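task queued by scheduler; priority normal; single chain, no ligands, no partner chains; default sampling; output format set to structure tokens
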Amino acid sequence: MKVTVNFAAAAIGLSLALAIPQPAWSNIKNVVDLGAGNLSFDYGSSGFGNLTAWYVLQSGTVGSSGVAGATGLSFTAHTSPSLPLSASGTPQLLITYDLTNTTGSATQAIKFIAEVEPNGGSNRLDAAGSSIAAGAGEPNAWAIQDLNSATFNLDQLIQQSGQLNDTNGCPALCDVDFALQWSIPALQPGQTSRLIVSLSDNGSHNSASFLSATHTDPSETLIFSGTAQVVPEPSTSLLLFAGLGIIAAGVFRGRWGSAATSCG
């Protein structure tokens, strides 16, 4: 009898659990590739946003789609996981921007800016936050602004001055627009500037520095971060392996010579 009652209780509990509405899948999803690493995407249960990439050159600011033509360098962008995503999406989306010096001379210093416009819900009001740390690969400038501001526009700042101002212009709930900036040193022939931008709605970030936009109803947060590095030219790697091969060969010959002397 006791066993029968337990099974009955379990059946009732299961039916109640199935009757309770389950939360919407909370992931980066419905990502649309707008070209050159520019994206539109959904996140959480009702969030949506856009990501735009910029390069700041001596001649002015250009979108990632125009950087190859403006510099003569090679540009590629791809996501991880690759697009299209499965219906469930991914808790963290990584977007890699590679700018490679395919010319015969060094480039000028360049800046890279990634701008995100998150909207946690239909009213587009979010609370913005920032956590900025110094270090290798970390962004060296940032900005947060209200898209509805009549006195300041983040797009204008990026395109006209090419420099973010480390300012949170959105201290209360607002229609958030924010950006991170990295300085890229002069690239030698064959070197690649690699920027990896991260978007997540599970709290993860790929750098110590990050910006966040939190919606209150429903309560969910988009985290925006990124890292930068310069990938050495292929000839450097070849020289390294060649040097290691020479050292290994020398050690082998030394051991073989010692063994031959002992046998003699």
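post-processing summary
- The chain has four helices and 14 strands.
- Confidence is low (pLDDT under 50) at residues 1-25, 237-244.
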